[in-house]
Amino acid sequence: MSWPATACTVALAELTQFPGRFRSVLHALTEAARAYADAPGDRAFGWQRSETRTVLPPPRPAPRAFNQLALGSYNEKLVIENIREAGALSRVEIAEQTGLTPQAVSRITRNLLTAGLLAEDGRQSAGAGKPRVPLRLRPDAASAIGVHLDPEMITVVAVDLCGGILDRRQMRLFERRDPDWCLEHMTRLALESAAVARQVSHDLLGVGVAVPGPVDARAGIVLDPPLFDGWEQVELKAELVERLGTAVIVEKDATAAAIGERWLGAADRAEDFVYLYLGAGVGSGAFLNGDVYRGTTGNAGEVGELCAIRAGLLTDEGGPRMVAECAPISAVVDQARAAGLMVPQGDGAYDWVCEAASRGDERAVAVLENVAGTVALGAVGIIDLLDVELLVVGGPAVLPSVADLYLRRIAAAVNRFPVARRVRDVHVAQSRPNQAAAVGAASSVFHSAFTPRLSPRGRSARAASTHV
Fold this sequence. Notes:
It contains 14 helices and 14 strands. It is an alpha/beta fold. The strands form four sheets. The chain has a five-stranded mixed β-sheet, sandwiched between helices. It has a five-stranded mixed β-sheet with strand order 12-11-10-13-14, with helices on both faces.
């Protein structure tokens, strides 16, 4: 085999295994080979890989809204956003909150009423003068499908524009979790939910999928998540687009849960917050400056290393060590058995320990307190890093029977240990949506379609212009 063929084979193998990390290396090798080909003389080709070489990443694609509703402007989305957060607003109130002129508001709301996105509520008196007519979003104006892939279960929901759940389906994963099996059943459940949604709403905007990280969110590729054997380099988005024939968004589960909280939480989730997601693992999603923060690759929000650093758990090399408690569900079950509790095997083991704790079993309570305390140390790192005043806690591990325990331990830590504790009280709240990641995945479709943005990195709180 010639040296160019050998180099190409090695490069393609590594690019397949580590796509994000190897792009810059492949770029450097290509540039070196091109320079060698262009240079005169008969000399040997030499190149040494450098891990520290800095190469600009490929340009980030600008976020695109779904096209079915053809929302023509930032200002139309701004009006929808303000009505959604308030629940209902009159035209006068819309103008006051957005900075749009009354004429612009009248034109925009007329268009949105004609398109079927808004509906006029009952008239309310404003004292002297013409009564104000509140405007609301129509729940049946649009719908979306949310899919949550978890090591234990596939959950699929159909959600209307106001967050109402139109359909819910679940399938437990017992012996098989391989990609072909999961994709087959994700497709079947999503199509069944879509059929129900279309009976209520004529505009099904797309499918959002929440998965454990790490992911390549831009390409929709799942990159070997924990507890999922065989999921190296699975092109989840491309597969589902082909099978479902509709737009698909792939998000990390914690990011999806944060989007759902923002979309359904309305006014009291309108400011910056962090969502602490407790499930098979621990992750976080953040809303900062009016938009979800995903990071460069969609993998922002990993909490495990923060917990390790706070707890002083380091490897022999001095790096953060894997923290068992950052897999709360399995950690609780394992520690409960080690404490002598007769925890049943199979599904329901975690629920069993939580029920025992809610009945006052001291060993079960101690186990949950220990896991919650470790997670709380990671939450302290998040608060110190991002300086937010609202921390939302949710996910499959936060069952009603133990939600107060988790919230109490986390609230105590984030208000006792952070550096800026004297100037900031952190409110720790329980997540609102059931099936937070699945509902959040559906909400990510609405978020993509309706959230007003002036740039890929965020949006202004006011109108882009006073005229449309």
